[in-house]
Amino acid sequence: MPSELRRPTLRWGIIGTGLISSWFVGDMVVPRADVTATHVIQAIGSSSSEKGRAFVEKYGGDISPSIYGSYDAVYADPDVDIVYIGIPHAFHKDACLKAISHGKHVLCEKPFTLNAQEGQEVFNAAKKMGVYIMEAMWTRFMPLTAQLLRMIHREKVIGDVHRVFCDFGLVIDLDSLPATSRLKDPALGAGALLDIGVYSLTWGLLGLDEGIAGTALKPQVFSAQSISQGIDVATSIVLYYPQNGRQGILTSTMKTKSDPVFARIEGSHGTILIEGIATSVPHRFTVIPSDATAERQVYDAPPKVGKGFFYEADAVARDIAAGRVENATMPWGETLRVLALMDGIRAAGVSQED
């Protein structure tokens, strides 16, 4: 049987026509050799039909989806199998619940919801309806990430992990933004932690412990936040694992740009440096043995095609074709675990007005 006939097919409804949706749609239409699923952009939902048409013309290539001037029309479209939610995270819960109520599967951008309570509400609804849902933490699905974690935890190329450092910094001029910007408005979930700090936290969790969800060790968490205009412009997190003494120092900021080498994982036999254009997009890691006579080993991501959102989309398609309602790499429990950690960090962080 030709391979294309064995590939699962998903018909996507896109909620939102902002930057993240443009990246996702662009990846769905880019030609690539390693495709494992067929993705059809079936519908676009925007705040107006005009915006939807402009979005398709700019990012959609040769696609010709249904274009709606509302999100509700996408949820109601019988030809849509799954909804991708790319709107500001303050609206994720309501969007997920509406999609689920129409029997749609869901891939929702990170952070999944504003807090763990909202996330649990969404997962409860998905379970009741029997639909698939996953948080779109795309970094976890990249082949380079999987290779790195295998080498750390299974092959133990640097021995026992002792510490992880990770930073995600962007320069965001809050004064130049309107009060309604998702990057500035506290009601929209603005702030360094929810927007980019979740990646630093994720790398810390992945590097310090092989377990996820129910199998993960529980760290002690210490944090500090700098607050300006009602949102955190910088967050620092220390994870301490009393079970083995491991520590993670994980930071995010809207004041400075992070270095291309954004993470360092230190072990008993060496160090690993991770680099990329952003902390969310690793493109190389270097293994540096403690033995000065041993050579460094450099591992690069596959040749760049698109941005890499298709890895998570392919995983979703395979799951749904197999009848699963959650993904093993990013199960519901892992989303709730990370949300709960961020809830605690936001509640306990030391706030200091600039």
TrEMBL record:
Keyword Oxidoreductase on entry: yes
Residue span(s) of domain GFO/IDH/MocA-like oxidoreductase: 148-272
Entries under Gene3D superfamilies matching the protein: Dihydrodipicolinate Reductase, domain 2, NAD(P)-binding Rossmann-like Domain
EC number: 1.1.1.179
Keyword annotations from UniProtKB, A to Z: Oxidoreductase
A GO term, aspect molecular function: D-xylose 1-dehydrogenase (NADP+) activity
Enzyme's top EC category: oxidoreductase
Domain of life: Eukaryota
Residues annotated as domain Gfo/Idh/MocA-like oxidoreductase N-terminal: 10-134
UniProt catalytic activity: D-xylose + NADP(+) = D-xylono-1,5-lactone + NADPH + H(+)
Protein family membership: Belongs to the Gfo/Idh/MocA family.
Protein name per its UniProtKB record: D-xylose 1-dehydrogenase (NADP(+), D-xylono-1,5-lactone-forming)
Lineage summary: Eukaryota, Fungi, Dikarya, Ascomycota, Pezizomycotina
